[in-house]
Amino acid sequence: MDTRRKTMTLFDITLIATTLLCALTAGLILGFAVVVMPGIAKLSDRGFLLAFKEMDGVIQNKQPLFMFVWVGSIVSVVLLLILGTRQLSGLERYVMWFACSLYLIAVQGPTIRFNIPLNNAVQALKIDDLNDSDLARARRQFETPWNRWNLFRTLAAIVCVIALLMLQLILR
């Protein structure tokens, strides 16, 4: 048995942190996909929009732990790309680039391009001033596209975490 201890490098620490933060992000958006959105889908149009507006309001108010995980995942992915590009080669580098690119393009990209603008549209609604027809229209314009892009980014985040875990196994 090899009793030598490997010294953890900044790259090793970054890889572990990135895997953890991306996994937490994947879990958060998975929770929305399989529990939160199906749960509030049963509400009336007014109740649905009010519930989502309140939940998103917590995020919009920069809840500290959420911000640490979400923004931290982006920062750690970028740092991993920088460190890994310098340190890795061959298959290791390709797996790292795949995981990081997937996360930035297919998780954060749709978030910025689709989910956040949809969230902002709900935040801008004066829900109490809307009639039933306007509430139904607002919900239709929000719910289906938001759920579609959330499912897309959830699947991408899961694949990203699997790739990061595979990278750790390859590096062992």
Reconstruct the topology from this structure.
Elements: H1 10-40, H2 45-60, H3 64-87, H4 90-124, H5 132-171
**Which value, in Å, is the CA radius of gyration?**
19 Å
Query: Which structural class should the secondary elements be placed in?
Result: mainly alpha
Tally of DSSP β-strands: 0
**Largest beta-sheet characterization:** none
Percentage beta strand:
under 5%
User: What average pLDDT do the residues reach?
Assistant: 97
Shape call: elongated
Report what the structure shows.
The structure is a single chain. This protein has five helices and no strands. It is mainly α and 172 residues long. The relative contact order is 0.17. The mean pLDDT is 97.
In short:
The protein has 172 residues and is an all-alpha fold.
List keywords for this structure.
172 residues; mainly alpha; 5 helices; 0% strand
